[in-house]
Amino acid sequence: MGTVLPLARPVTADQISDAKAKAAQLQSEIQSTGQQIDALDQQWQADQEKKSSLDQQIVSTKTKITQTRQQVGHDKVVLQKAAVNAYVSGNSASEQDPLFEGNQAAQSATDEYNAVAEGDLGTAVANLNTDQSQLNLQESTLQGEDQQAAQAVANANAAYNQAQQEQQQQQQALGQVKGQIAQLIAQQQAAEQAAAQAAANARLQAARAAATAQAAAAASEAASAPAGTSVDPPPPPPPSSGGAGAAAVAAAESYLGVPYVWGGASRAGVDCSGLTMLAWAAAGVGLPHYSGGQMSDSTPVPLSDLEPGDLLFYGPGGSQHVAMYIGGGQMIEAPYSGQVVWIVGARFGGGFVGAGRP
Question: What's the average model confidence in pLDDT over 118-142?
Answer without folding.
Answer: 67
